[in-house]
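hi! just following up on the protien thing from before. the input was this:
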Amino acid sequence: MEKLFDGEFRLMEVLWDSEPVNSTKLVHLCEERLNWNKSTTYTVLRKLCQKGAAKNENATVTTLLSRQQVIRARGDELAEKAGGTTPFLTAFLSGRKLTMEEALELKELIDRSMGED
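and the predicted 3d structure came back as:
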């Protein structure tokens, strides 16, 4: 998956919350939520379509990538830059207090990723 820049990710968030959406309605939503004008919305949408992240067909806009796919790709990129998953998580969690619920959710994710159910 091609990297999405911050503006592209922000538009994807609007799309995930409202898809399928008419392109005119999308312009209105972006004006409300992102303070973007029509030109900015269509420019960013065109880039998302070129990257295969969204499609605009018959003035109806939908995403082609899920929120989870995009977040996973962003996380993979950050982990790679940090030198691996462990250094990334160490830096991310340092100085933070997890609730018991968060800790249990993380443990469950780790167990699932190791194939332990």
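The two ends are 29 Å apart (CA to CA).
The helical segments are 6-18, 23-34, 38-50, 67-82, 85-93, 100-113.
cheers
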